[in-house]
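Fig. S4 source data, part A: sequence.
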Amino acid sequence: MQHMLQPASTTSRSRTALIFVLPLLFLVIGLALRFLAFRVAQPEAGPSAFITAMCRWDCGWYVKMAQTGYDPFPIPSRINAGNWAFFPFYPLLVGAIRLVLPFPTIVTASIVSLLTTYAAAVIAWPLFERNLRAFTLYAAYLLSGPFAFYFTSFFTEPMFVLTMTVVFVMLKRSNYMGAGLATVLLSATRIVGVFATLSLIVQAALDHRAATGSWRGLIGAFLKRPNLLLAIFIAPLGLFAYMAFLNFYIGDGLAFQHTQRAWGRPYGNPIFFVWQGLTAWPNTGFWPTSSQWLAGAAVLGFVLTLVLAWRRQWAQALFAFVSLTLPLFAGLASVIRFTAAMVPITVLAMQLLASRRWLFALSLLGIIVLGYVIPLAWLGNNVALV
C-alpha cells in the first residue's frame, strides 16, 4: 500500500512546487522582456531609468497619491481635477510601505506590484481545477504577457486582480465570510469591486439550490445564517468608507464620480460607444485605429462573459458583465486595461487556450512574444493602452 501511494504523493508535491515556481519563472522572464523593450525603445536612457520609464499615464497620479495623499481641492495644473477618481487602498498601502523601505516611491510600488501579482497567480490555482496547462498560461499572462506592465508597475490592477482572485476562490469553497472580507478590499481598490457583493449573494443562492435541489426556502435559509448575512453586510464597506472619507475631507462623498467632468469623460450609451469605436476606420491603411482596438477589447470581454454564463458560472459572469459595462457609460477609455484585469474572463480564456496541446504551445509562445511587442507600444505612448 505504501508503494502504491508513493507515486501520487510525489506527483502532488511536484505539482505544488510548480504552482510556486512557474509564476516565479515568468516573473523573471517578464522583467527581462520589458527591460529589452525599454532598451530598444529608449536606447539613450540608462538602465536605472527602466522602472520610471514603465510608469506612464495614471501611474504618475498614483505615485503622487502615495507621497502626498488626496487633493484638498481641484488643482488647476491638473485640468482642474482632483485625484479623487482613484480609489485609496493600493496607493495607501504603497504609501505606508514606502515609509519603511529606503527606495523611491515608484521602485517601492513596482516591487509591491510584482509580489502582489505573483501572489495573485499562485492563489488562483484552485480556479483551474488542476489544469496545469491553463495555470501555466495564466501565470505567463500575468507576469510575462502583453499587459504585464499593468500588473508590475504602479496601477491598481495588481491589487484588483489579487483581491478579485481571493473573492472567487473563497466563493468556490463556499467561504462567504472570506469572500466578504476580500470584497471590502476589492471595493476600496476600484469602484466596480463593490459588485462582487452581488456575486457573493448569487453564489450563496446557487449553493443553496445545489444542496437542497430547490429554490424553496432560500430567504429563510439566508436569514438562518448570520455569517452569510454579516459577509453581505461588510462586503461593500470599502466603498462606503471611501465615500465617508471624501464627505469629511472635501464635502462630497461622490467626488470620485463628479470629478469625471473635469477629466472630460462623456456619459452615454455603452452600445453607442462600442459601435462608434468599431466603425472608427483608419484614414489610410488597414491597421485598426485605437478606438477599434478598445471596442474590440470590450466585445471580446462580453463574448467571454457569455461563455461564462453558458457554462453556468453565474457569479463570475455577473461580476464580469457589470464590471465591464459600468465603465463603458463613460466611453471606451481604458477598456483594454479593464478587460485585461478581469479575472473570471482571463482565467476562462487560458482554460480555452489550454484545451489542446498544440494550442497551448502556440498560446504560450504568443504570450511571450507579445510580452515584448506590446510594451514597445506602451513605451511609445499608444493611447489605446492608457
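Fig. S4 source data, part B ends here. Residues 1-6 have pLDDT under 50 and may be disordered.
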